[in-house]
Known about the structure:
Elements: E1 6-12, E2 28-29, E3 32-33, H1 34-42, E4 48-53, H2 57-61, E5 67-68, H3 78-88, E6 93-98, H4 108-119, E7 123-128, E8 131-140, H5 144-152, H6 158-162, E9 167-171, H7 185-195
Parallel strand pairs: 1-4, 1-6, 4-5, 7-9
Antiparallel strand pairs: 2-3, 6-8, 7-8
Helix pairs in contact: 3-5
Amino acid sequence: MHGDAITGVILAGGQGRRMGGVDKGLQLLGGRPLVQWVADRFAPQVEQLLLNANQGIVQYRALGYPVITDHVSGFAGPLAGLHAALSCAAHPLVATAPCDSPFLPRDLVARLRSAMAQHGADLATARTFDQLQPVFCLCRRELLPQLGAFLERGERKLDLWQRTVNSVVVAFDDEAAAFRNINTSDELAAIRHDQR
Length: 196
């Protein structure tokens, strides 16, 4: 299990509706796009890093990581991004993180992996207190057929799919602040202000 290498994917495939339709991952914080903040913390935890995006492809490619697009049409959400990653990952395990959580834990993947091994699970997902964090997960690439079938049925909810497989939930109560995400322009402005 511990010999299994990991492909990480940053999920930036949404439409950014709550931020006025702009591409969230490309919004600037401290002069750098949000997705770059995520990559700086996430890349050292994995052997391969991919970016999942459905718009702004040229800008995402400029960051130097391979960009993959959803195989499911219509901006189907993080589940479609995970599906795309499982389809083309070079490694047996795939870890996901959203493009709008610039302070994600530096030990995220290690802790998810440890719980997976301990419980013999196929998927591990993070939780902070009573809040599930389904977009922060680690799963086996071999779950692709189950995920494909789930999407084909028209299902789109990531946490719902996670409950259909052999999964374990990992508490990150000690690092809850690290999961702070930026969904709106106001939240981005607040974080910019905090950074001063």
